[in-house]
Amino acid sequence: MAEGPNIIDFPGLPEEPPALQLRVELLLVPYPVWRRIVLPGRSSFWDLHVAIQDAMGWQDKHLHRFTLDDPGQGQYLRLGIPDDSSFHGLDEVLAGWEYPVTRFCRPGGAAMLYTYDLGDDWQHEVSLEGFLHGWSPAGLPVCSEGVGACPPEDCGGPTGFSSLPQATADEGFDPGAVVFENPRERWHRAFGHD
Length: 194
Prior knowledge:
This protein is an alpha+beta fold. It is 14% helix and 28% strand.
């Protein structure tokens, strides 16, 4: 990682952005919980999902989905793990591993919604803040900043969490302590094949 990488204002989508800086904020909790993560420029929505899980401290035990506006089609999209059982409702869920984040997201564009655990309904606002230069893809992802301890898994979502006595911002967050798992290894554990 180079010293002092700069965020580049978005004049147009570069062919191959060297790195993506994203801000992920957990919504509907009683204190601020957010992370700033840097991913390789070619990251897919699956890669972003794994990075969010690791940065937030979730255990990836439940389904997830990204919901966003498609700037090219003027409609909203859902990306995640396709499900033929119609669990997600009537709208198609596109395979997140087949689409790069930059296909639908631009710095300064509309934020997307990342929902984890469709029962507890943890909602995160995810914004692509910019493209970074001076970062080696081999050293990514990283969590460069963050605030607030993430709620415990399976505590009943924002409503259940807010009623817990330990629901305070007292627990700090150390971005340097985040360990990122290889998205391919997570894939093999979840699906057992390529």
